[in-house]
Amino acid sequence: MTFANPLVLVALLAIPLLVWWYSGQQRRRERAASAFVLPALTASVAPRRPGWRRHAPMIAFAFALAVLVLAAARPQRTVAKPVTDGAIMLADDVSSSMRATDVAPTREQAAQRAARHFLASVPSTVQVGLLAFARTPTVLQSPTTDHALTKSAVGRLPKFSGGTAVGDAILSAVHQLRSIPKIGGKRPPGAIVLISDGASNVGISPLQAAHEAHQLHIPVYTISVGTPNGTVPIKRGSQTVTGRVPVSREQLAEIARVSGGRTFETSDAAGVSAAYAHLAARLGHKQVKQEITASFAGGALVLLLLGGALSLRWFGRLV
After folding, report:
1. What are the angstrom distances between the C-alpha of 163 and each of 49, 265, 266?
2. Is residue 67 located within the same domain as residue 91?
3. I need a surface site. Which of 14, 91, 187, 275 has the fewest CB within 10 A?
4. Does residue 64 or residue 22 have the better pLDDT?
């Protein structure tokens, strides 16, 4: 919980002073009473004493005062609200290493399945586009609120090919997000979700591309999919050999860090789906501060009424 006017909280220092003043008043009343009644006769003159009830109304008033000070400081809490605008580009690696079956049924098929769940989870007001990349990026669907079009594009991903141009894919995604028309003079906030299994080996430096994305306030969320034991069949002449394609996570983690995003490391289909589900919740909602002053003011009113009611019932006076 935070406060819009935190300096008002200084007034809470008055509460201990109020307690000190009240304690002094009680001691003076006791001294005044003892001046007129001998201690031995106190029990017969005043056989019934209110005890703790004498202080209960004042305690309620003190708490009410403290809560009123908190209300004056305008307390706020952070809540997640569905976004009413925004744009996301999914960047899907379709290089030959994504054929590896260490993530069942294959790395790419697991990614496709999770992408469909992502599209079903993101609010309909968020625009989502898709591009595929290997040696070069190919835009399959520009950002749109018609998620059925993007879902259809997921099923049209091109066949696997060699090379992994992560940097070019990031710049292509940035270009798509920057091409979205402005509404009311402002372009909707954008983000990139990039899934891959290896380090970039062609095209522009991915860290340079990540830096450019950061400059434009477009974070890149990376999902590294695969295990160190991934393999794919490779044709060499008339023979087919097995080639190792271990996942390379370090570069993808650095891309996320430089761009201001977050990285996810997955080694199975469930992990890919969990990463997409987390991003759907994160990118489909925004954290906003909600003022809860009315709740504090209502609580203070209840305490004031409680203190007044107790005082009237027990002592026949309001205070």
Report:
1. 89, 21, 21
2. no
3. 14
4. 64
In this prediction, residue 12 has a pLDDT band, given cuts at 50, 70 and 90, of confident
Which residue spans within the chain are E strands per DSSP? Answer: 2-3, 75-82, 87-93, 127-133, 137-144, 190-196, 220-225, 231-236, 239-244, 263-266, 285-291
Same domain, 120 and 220: yes
**Position with higher pLDDT, 128 vs 299:** 128
Q: How far, in Å, CA of 223 to CA of 197, rounded? A: 8
Rounded Cα gap, residues 108 and 31, in angstroms: 86
One domain, residues 207 and 228 = yes
Look at the chain and report how many structural domains it folds into: 2
**Distance between CA atoms of residues 155 and 102, nearest Å:** 21
* Integer angstrom CA distances of residue 111 from 132, 142, 218, 226, 248: 12, 19, 22, 11, 16
Looking at residue 315, its pLDDT comes to 64
Note the pLDDT of residue 255: 96
Give the other-Cβ count within 10 Å of 170's Cβ. Answer: 32
Tell me, yes or no, whether 226 and 241 share the same domain. yes
Which residue bears the tokens 């990031």? 170
Q: What is the pTM of this model?
A: 0.69
Domain membership of residue 155 as a residue range = 84-283
